[in-house]
Amino acid sequence: MSKQWLAILIGGLLPAFFLGVSGVLQKTASRTGIAPGPYILIIGLVVAAIGGAVALAQRDVSVTVSGAVQTAGFAALWSAGIFGIMLGLGKYEGQVSVIVPLYNMNTLVAVGIGLVLLGEWQGVNVWRLLAGTALIVAGGVLAGTSVK
Predict the structure, then answer these.
(1) Which of 38, 62, 109, 111 has the fewest CB neighbours in a 10 Å radius?
(2) In the chain, what are the domain boundaries?
(3) pLDDT per residue over 19-72, tens digit each?
């Protein structure tokens, strides 16, 4: 199997499955009465444990200041997003089938930043990307307006 297909499988399809199931667990957890603070704290503890296990297994604990700062930025933005999702699903009783497609439109933000700031526009088929963007927006609109 080529590196490109492994990247799609390991970096795309498996995470799509894991994150899809995690979206359902967010909803079920929000129904238990857990507050957003402890919810994010427990996530952090589990992430720390898994990070420690991966570092030990790979025997690689290399860190740069730039990498640490960017990772901290990622964690802060991710936590803010998870907090919003938790409020939407829990406090405001949103439906997973509506909320998840909307927050997964984050793809468009990442693609836009990747194209402009990372110069990835040179290595993609822009027309296919625009068609995919139109489908993502259409899916978000349809899902967001599907509540009876």
Answers:
(1) 62
(2) 3-94, 105-148
(3) 889 988 988 998 898 999 999 999 999 999 999 999 999 999 999 999 999 999
53 in Cβ contact with 133 (< 8 Å): no
In contact, 36 and 87? CB cutoff 8 Å: yes
Distance CA(144)–CA(98), nearest Å, equals 5
Mean pLDDT of 101-116: 88
